[in-house]
Automatic annotation (TrEMBL):
Pfam families: TctA. InterPro entries: DUF112_TM. PANTHER family: TRICARBOXYLIC TRANSPORT PROTEIN. The chain crosses the membrane at residues 20-48, 60-81, 108-134, 146-162, 169-186, 206-225, 315-335, 355-376, 388-406, 412-441, 462-485. The lineage of its organism: Bacteria, Bacillati, Actinomycetota, Actinomycetes, Pseudonocardiales. It comes from the Bacteria. Residues 19-436 form the DUF112 domain. Keywords: Membrane, Transmembrane, Transmembrane helix. It comes from Saccharopolyspora hirsuta. This is Tripartite tricarboxylate transporter permease.
Length: 502
């Protein structure tokens, strides 16, 4: 652990000005994340333009607060309204909403808040320990290796998310197509600009993210809006008794051990580890007898897992420049807005900024716990806003944010065109994350592929001329063929009893 750099980061993050930015970020992130249907990714995308007026250090300190505040808000919505803001919060809703209906919503919120803090704290410690080491090894990674990692991110996000692989790859294709808009980075030839000079620089990632998440979700909710709305449950002041603490402290500690490794691998995400954490806690605490009726372990473990997984995604994003979740993709866009490219040299070129960002995440977690535990009833009242007004406000702020990016009316047109695409993706069950990853990584993958081919004089062997690239392609092959092998094994096992009976 590089204590000197971390302490320097804390000295920057703990100044009164930056503490104020962190507190504002936590409040904004939680306020937006707690609204129905709005997850951390949408909260971060909506509030990204808010940070543009700040210097990079202040902006990213506020961004860290928004990041963790949005995640906490998503779990609050899951517990109170059984409306997960993102897929990672689905597991928390299974037992958390049952607790709320049983009059234990305060305990569920407290277990989620403390689990969020502990999981994030352990995950950030592992981030501090591992990120510089990985960055040191990543300096020696060449163009073929980077291209292989990006293909792995494409394959993993397209195959893991969504109801089918075809839908995942269709979403990825949409993102790659949007990423092609603009001038070719090497030849300067215009692509998909339709003669518009304003599209020569491509479509801003913030416009794409806000369009797919905020506008697409708003149109989807408007299309299915009901005239009746369930009243939010009473929350009260969160607290945990001794019996609850005895049942939750072990899940809080086990969760990060499950979540961080999944978050650190390309396209790991928090969906799989949260379900795994739920399964583990259910197997280890069957004696409590209230699983399916509101077991507090089913809230504490998955919430700590999800936050530690989010810290793990920062390792891949900061050291390799690969966003493995929707939130990481929007954060990568924020770095690019300031002309900063995450990667192996980030810890050398922007050491002060990176360590201040990491330190501010520790500060943001502490502020989140202190501020939001007593304010849970306030967030519950926000949920009483009628949905027509709620999503009308989201569309307004999304439009203002998109226009603020470039100050061009064309950005508003693109925002709503992409929003309609996002609505259509939801209509046909296409996941949004592969599209975002395609927009972010598509141009970079093309550039690395061309560099590798130039070095090898156009030979395709230039893409597989290193042991690391070969190993990554083997992983990709296993990822793509695993369902087929799994089906063959199951079919073989089903046929064996028939042969015995015959």
């Amino acid at each position: 652990m590089d204590l000197s750099n971390l302490l320097a980061g804390f000295s920057t993050a703990l100044t009164p000005e930056h503490l104020l930015f962190a507190a504002i970020g936590v409040l904004l992130g939680t306020a937006v994340g707690v609204l129905p249907g709005i997850g951390p990714a949408m909260a971060v995308a909506l509030l990204l333009p808010v940070t543009y007026a700040l210097d990079p250090t202040g902006a990213f300190i506020m961004f860290a607060g928004i990041y963790f505040g949005g995640m906490f808000g998503g779990s609050t919505t899951s517990i109170l309204l059984n409306t997960p803001g993102e897929s990672a919060a689905v597991v928390v809703a299974i037992e958390g909403n049952k607790m709320a209906k049983a009059g234990r919503g305060s305990q569920a919120l407290a277990a989620a808040a403390i689990g969020h803090f502990i999981g994030g704290l352990i995950g950030l410690v592992l981030l501090v320990l591992l990120a510089p080491v990985i960055a040191g090894y990543a300096v020696n990674i060449g163009a073929p290796d980077y291209f292989a990692f990006m293909v792995l991110a494409f394959a993993a996000t397209a195959t893991v998310l969504g109801s089918s692989r075809i839908r995942g790859f269709a979403s990825l294709l949409i993102g790659l197509t949007i990423g092609l808009v603009g001038l070719d980075q090497m030849s300067g030839q215009a692509r998909l600009t339709f003669g518009s000079l304003q599209l020569a620089d491509g479509i801003d990632v913030v416009v794409v993210a806000v369009g797919l998440f905020a506008v697409g979700e708003s149109l989807w909710v408007a299309a299915h809006l009901r005239h009746t709305q369930d009243k939010p449950l009473s929350v009260g002041r969160p607290w945990l008794g001794r019996a609850d603490l005895r049942r939750t402290w072990k899940p809080w500690l086990r969760g990060p051990l499950i979540g961080f490794p999944f978050g650190a691998i390309p396209a790991g995400g928090a969906e799989m580890p949260t379900f795994l954490s739920y399964t583990v806690e259910k197997q280890l605490s069957r004696k409590t007898g209230d699983w399916g009726k509101g077991a507090i372990e089913g809230v504490a473990g998955p919430e700590a897992t999800a936050t530690a997984s989010a810290a793990g995604t920062m390792v891949t994003m900061l050291t390799l420049g690969l966003p493995t979740t929707s939130v990481a993709a929007v954060m990568l866009a924020a770095f690019q807005q300031y002309g900063i490219q995450p990667g192996p040299l980030l810890f050398q070129r922007e050491a002060d900024l990176v360590w201040a960002l990491i330190a501010s995440m520790f500060v943001g977690l502490a502020l989140l716990l202190v501020i939001n535990l007593p304010m849970a009833p306030v967030w519950a009242k926000l949920l009483q806003i009628p949905r027509p007004y709620l999503y009308a406000g989201i569309l307004f702020f999304a439009s203002v944010g998109a226009y603020a990016v470039g100050g061009e009316a064309l950005d508003l047109v693109l925002l709503f065109i992409i929003g309609v695409i996002g609505f259509a993706m939801r209509r046909y069950g296409l996941p949004v994350l592969p599209a975002i990853v395609g927009v972010i990584l598509g141009p970079a993958a093309e550039l690395q592929m061309r560099r590798a081919l130039q070095i090898s004089d156009g030979s395709l062997t230039g893409l597989v001329n290193s042991p690391l690239a070969i190993a990554v392609y083997v992983i990709i092959a296993l990822l793509l063929t695993w369902p087929l092998w799994n089906k063959l094994v199951r079919a073989k096992k089903q046929n064996e009893p028939d042969r015995v009976d015959a």
